[in-house]
Amino acid sequence: MKYVVKFFSEIAIKSTPVRRRFVDKLASNARAVLVELDPQVVVRRHWDKLEIESEADESLQRQIVDALQHMSGITYILEVQSHPLPDLAGIIEKVMPVYAERLAGKSFAVRCKRSGQHSFSSLDVEREVGAALLRQTEAAGVNLSQPEVTVDLEISKKSLYVVAERYRGIGGYPVGSLDPVVSLISGGFDSPVASYLTMKRGMRTHFLFFNLGGRDHEVGVKEVALYLWQKYGCNQRVLFISVPFEEVVAELLGQIEDSHMGVILKRMMLRVAERIADQLEVDALVTGECVAQVSSQTLRNLSVIDQVTSKLVLRPLIATDKEDIVRMASQIGTQEFAANMPEYCGVISVNPTTRAKLGRVEAQEQRFDMSILDRAIANATQTRIDRLAEQDLERSEVEVLTVPLSGATIIDIRHPDEEQLAPLRVHEEVLKIPFFELHSKAATLAADQTYMLYCGKGVMSRLHASHLIDSTNLTVKVYAPRTL
């Protein structure tokens, strides 16, 4: 199968050196992702497009298209049949087998995009092909304004591309083409969407989590960070940083006035985030804050919070309605995580201020033992996101098997979208429990049964197997079949 990948429109208007850099990065990202699906995949870089060829089976072709649809920097993916450019009669001959059956009983229009010098115009192609299709198929007629089927053709110099399918990409710039950022992620609706938007805009995004108490919450946030990276991160090397913040919360509760705890907690987070960003040589921080969504997010409070850091603080959702954020979370696949995320609200003010004054905040902070922040940073863990499971495996011994055990029940914990793309086919019983529901449903699983967790790459299954072993009496292993 052959695909033509169309770049995001803003890439095309860049200067020649910048455009070349962006296109090179997109080609590199495509190779890095697609080679895991098809080691023989071919990615060719051109000035105005990428060409991708794969001889993989139909199931893998669907996964290739899905991967490209979630790769930033791409506006369209065209599934094409390519031919050396023939004359007009030859073009008709190439189009007929692709579109004849689709046109039965339907209106259509022919659209041709052409670049290069030819003896005919795009309009000539549209007229001749349209007339032939009208004569030789059972099409209902031509409708140029609202066709039921669009016959899609592209002519580039000496090549003809008959577009069999057109898929929409997410746009944006290739991940890694712009400077990196550190995103403060909590696992709710907002911060994962904010992280997605920075990734989509081309920024390599590290994930920074402040643990206010509880391993369940940390595991949940790891899940969503790992999902975002696997779905949209294009295998870029990024870190998941977890900072223990329980002692910070305890100090706030003991030393800070109730009305100012929310604002000062955010200032403490930015202090730590700035120092970690300095270690990573990163210039910008990202949060999921939105004006007036909660008391600490009034313009006055955000201004007071930001004055604690010299870093640029990006807030992609700053003027976005909550309903729109939830809708975007649903579109990118993180809504289920937020709905199932354990909540740890270590600091809840009874009467929080909405108009904090910097002088009063700084006076309150004089009571705070800042050495606690030093300890939090010293005890922070930094893990490459593709190695998150290995960190948890140090706590629990997880057996990984390449073949199912007789009598065991396999639990397919993949996201439903991923499971539909590549259904698991084995002889053993298979339960479908998405990983974001696994721990809430663990109590319903029989204690005398052996369970084998399965996910596509084996990372998520190891992470959850480790957690289930530690938190339940279940017998849990990992099923990780070898890929050919």
TrEMBL record:
Protein name: Probable tRNA sulfurtransferase
Domain THUMP: 62-166
Enzyme class: transferase
GO cellular component: cytosol
Cellular localization per UniProt: Cytoplasm
The species this protein was found in: Sediminihaliea albiluteola
Gene behind this protein: thiI
Catalyzed reaction equations: [ThiI sulfur-carrier protein]-S-sulfanyl-L-cysteine + a uridine in tRNA + 2 reduced [2Fe-2S]-[ferredoxin] + ATP + H(+) = [ThiI sulfur-carrier protein]-L-cysteine + a 4-thiouridine in tRNA + 2 oxidized [2Fe-2S]-[ferredoxin] + AMP + diphosphate; [ThiS sulfur-carrier protein]-C-terminal Gly-Gly-AMP + S-sulfanyl-L-cysteinyl-[cysteine desulfurase] + AH2 = [ThiS sulfur-carrier protein]-C-terminal-Gly-aminoethanethioate + L-cysteinyl-[cysteine desulfurase] + A + AMP + 2 H(+)
Keywords linked to the UniProt accession: ATP-binding, Cytoplasm, Nucleotide-binding, RNA-binding, Thiamine biosynthesis, Transferase, tRNA-binding
The keyword ATP-binding appears for this protein: yes
